[in-house]
Amino acid sequence: MRRGPIPDDDDAVPKKGKVVTTTGGWPELLRCTTTKPPPILLDELIAEILLRIPARSLVPLRNSVCRSWRTLISSSQFAKDHLRRSMAVDPALTHPLMAYYSQTYSYPIIGVFSVRSVMENPPHEPTKVVPYEGRRFRLIIGSCNGLLCLHDEERQDGFIISHRAMLWNPCTGFTSQPLEIGGLLSTCGFGYDHVNDKYKLFAILDKKSRMFTFGPKSTWRTIQDFSRNFRDGNYRGCQVNLVGLFVSGTGTLNWLFHRYLSFVWVLSLDLVKETFNQFSLPNRDSDDDHRVTPQLGILRDCLAVCYETKKTHWTVWLMKEYGVPQSWTKLAIIPHHPLLGRRPLSLQPIYMLKDVLLAIAPSGKFVLCNLNDGSIDIPNIDSSSDGMPKLCPLTQHSSGRIFELYHESLVSPFHFGLPSCSSEMRLIKPSL
């Protein structure tokens, strides 16, 4: 903004490229009309600049600037480079989000809300759930690199005629066309083979361990038997989670097992070698209540587990070096609190931002645990528009829902040869 007229004195008239001071006292660089046009940025420089922009901001730029930007932002290599940078250099480029579906009712809807907003918003400012509607009810099998793997059943005259899987990136809006997978999934998991650059789905079908690789020629292959790894010798126990937890950077799916009055361990599937391994979790005290089920999670990109300890508090552990039991490190001790409840589950760790832990308490509430001062808060999550009216509001209880944390990315199914579309899942706009 100009603070005054430019003086008429010839000595004060700015020459090309000369810094002058107007009567308002602001320094300005005034250029004459014969100045050469600014230089055109090199493609490599443009790419470096765009790699520093969050994924959600790049999506509208893809279709609104120019054809070359659309080609660049839509490319598989750019998506990989952006993902790599967001994971290793600048986590702010990818926003953590929570997706969920109804376990109780067959709503064809997946709700999504911002984890960062939940943890940063003041109590009076709610985090709103954004609903996405599909053509039918779908379960979330898992998430990896911004992709959600969904499972649905195709019915005819009330009978199930096929089971299908579909990949969906909520950030870009792209989905793969549903693929026939041949059966109901119980024990299963979805993850990324970083050595071979393949996205894989594991499942037990017809009592056999199968691996499905997403690509132009997607088929099931039989691999090492899952059940053999926990039904022999010392490894007889109860499987806590049916869906394997993917740990980024390790290329593994992980299932938690525990045995009453005994130890707890993890069964791990290496998606690169397609083989299983086992390792123990931190030892429990003899006076712990072993009927309280431990909970597995991922915090700070590490495998995490939460136990109830001595019937007075929960202990959260991090595995600093994956697969090495000696690397389990105590992260936090959280005393019992009336807002948290107790049995039959331990605290479920979800995400950490600085020194605040987002978790699902045994009471079923989302809670924010401040590890510095020990305070407990209930976040304000507005699920009134999530399209699931029979479920309890999230401010009161999370029951009836299955949750999956994911991070935004530009990775899309067409990057690895899957026919894609943008019509399978649509955003439900709020009514005015």
Automatic annotation (TrEMBL):
Signal peptide: none annotated. SUPFAM superfamilies: F-box domain (SSF81383). Residues 41-82 form the F-box domain. It holds the Pfam family FBA_1. This is F-box/kelch-repeat protein At3g23880. The gene is LOC107472592.
